[in-house]
Amino acid sequence: VGLGTEGPVQRGWGLWLTSVLAVAIAAVFVGARLLQRLVKRSGLGTDDYMIIAALIFSGLLSLTECQAVVYGYGRRWRTLEADTRMIARKWFYGANIVYKVVLMFNKISIASLYYRIFAVSSNSFRVACHVMNAWIVASSLAFIIATIFQCTPISAFWDRSIPGFRCFKNELWWISYATIQISTDFALLLLPIPKIVKLSMGRAEKLGICLIFGTGAFVTFASIYRATTIAASASDPDPTWGPIPATIWSVIEANAGIVCACLPMLRGPFVGLFGPFFGRSRKATTKPNRSYHLTWRSDKPHESADVSNRIRGADDAMIDAERDSEEGFVT
Question: d(Cα 44, Cα 110) in Å, to the nearest integer?
């Protein structure tokens, strides 16, 4: 996707560059996640399929944003030809829809991962995961449909010359969606913590696991920071210039979510870099007879065994024996 020859890019170059780099980084992490599944022979689960869907739509998001920039998004409205204005706004309209689809699949992937790892421990946690996914789907679809029909007629989004058109007020509309997303992000951050606390492992190792799962806090930060840019973006009367800061942070938020959703499956590199803080010491790799299991504190032995199969750390020499484990995120 090139920057085109429509004129000076000006403010849009930052969005173009962010869109290209962010999805490329996200693709690397998803690829590493799928490679980890292949190496551990653990098979793909719902969480994996959802993150693949999120990446596909993130690629589509980058395409729509870049094309919007090519046709004038990021330049002053008054400097654009009438036809170019409408094309830029059409691409931006598509980006608005795709952005919400990316976040939906990303959040479903995270909740599904929690279910895959921890749901064996209690019925209440299974219910919590189902409720979370139901909320994510329902709220996301509601906003996606509302985004499609935010103007009456729909074409009024890119053609404001249509007589008698009506559209949502940008600031209220954007802030309401941001509030829902931030609340959901906080809920996803907190959901696995009680389960991690109950794992039979050292305090430092628990903290390390929490930090890996807690990388999603950056996504929450991106959502919050994006919300702070909304007021200025929405109040700017220039529809191709004003929204750029909020749009850049939307791209960052969407792709950072994909990256953070992949990190729990890539715990191995964290262990290699930080040693026992993330669950296994480097010395242990030289002792083939030692393996390290994270077990669940439960009065029911079969629950401890099942959770251990899902959350397992092993010495390098024991990897082949551990490949039957359903989860490979603590290798």
Answer: 14
Domain identity same for 136 and 85: yes
Mean pLDDT of 299-325: 39
Domain assignment present for 5: no
Q: Are residues 191 and 285 in the same domain?
A: no
Considering only residues 120 and 275, tell me which one the structure prediction assigns the higher pLDDT: 120
Highest mean pLDDT of the ranges 18-27, 68-77, 280-289, 298-307: 18-27
At which residue do the structure tokens 């490949």 appear?
323
Separation in Å, CA 251 to CA 25, 48, 159, 174, 255: 12, 21, 25, 15, 6
Inter-CA distances, 105 with 152, 175, 204, 227, 283, Å: 28, 21, 32, 21, 39
Q: Coil, strand or helix: which one is 51? A: helix
Q: Which among 45, 117, 287 is positioned nearest to 314, based on CA atoms?
A: 287
Domain count, the chain: 2
81: Cβ–Cβ under 8 A, 6 or more apart, which residues?
Answer: none
Residues 242 and 208 grouped into a single domain: yes
Q: Which domain holds residue 107?
A: 12-266
Quote the tokens at residue 58: 């993130």
Question: Given a cut of 80, is residue 203 above it in pLDDT?
Answer: no
Rounded to two decimals, the pTM is 0.79
- Token code pair at residue 13: 């170059």
- Looking at residue 313, its pLDDT comes to 36
